[in-house]
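Dear H.,

Thanks for agreeing to be a second pair of eyes. The structure we're designing against is below in C-alpha cell form, covering all 112 positions.
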C-alpha cells in the first residue's frame, strides 16, 4: 500500500512541477530506484508521524539523504549525490515548500 501511495505522491508532484514549466520529472515507471525508494520512505514517515507538518517531512527527507551520503549542490546531480533542496525548510523557495504540502496531503488522504 505504501508503494501505491508513493506512486500517487510522485505523480502529483510531477504534475505540479509540469504546471510550473519543469518537465524534468520522470514518470513513476521511469524514475530511478533511489527516487522511488525515497518517496516510499516519505510515505512511511508521514504515516508513522501523523502530526508531522511539511517541515518535518522535509527534515526527514534531508536526514535520509544525508545518511545516504548526499550533500547540497547547485543543481540535482544524482551521480555526485548533490541536491539543491538540502537546506533548512525555511530556506526553500515557496515552490519547493509546496511539494511537501502536496506530498503530505496525498499521504493523509490515501491513508485515511
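And this is the sequence the design step returned. I haven't edited it by hand at all.
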Amino acid at each position: 500500500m505504501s508503494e501505491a501511495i508513493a506512486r500517487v505522491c510522485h505523480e502529483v508532484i510531477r504534475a505540479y512541477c509540469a504546471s510550473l514549466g519543469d518537465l524534468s520529472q520522470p514518470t513513476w515507471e521511469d524514475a530511478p530506484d533511489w527516487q522511488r525508494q525515497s518517496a516510499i520512505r516519505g510515505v512511511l514517515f508521514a504515516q508513522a508521524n501523523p502530526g508531522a507538518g511539511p517541515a518535518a517531512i522535509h527534515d526527514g527527507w534531508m536526514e535520509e539523504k544525508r545518511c545516504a551520503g548526499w550533500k547540497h549542490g547547485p543543481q540535482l546531480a544524482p551521480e555526485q549525490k548533490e541536491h539543491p533542496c538540502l537546506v533548512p525548510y525555511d530556506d526553500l523557495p515557496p515552490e519547493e515548500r509546496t511539494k511537501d504540502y502536496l506530498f503530505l496531503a496525498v499521504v493523509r488522504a490515501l491513508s485515511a
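Two observations from my side: The chain has one domain: 2-111. The longest strand covers residues 71-72.

Warmly,
E.
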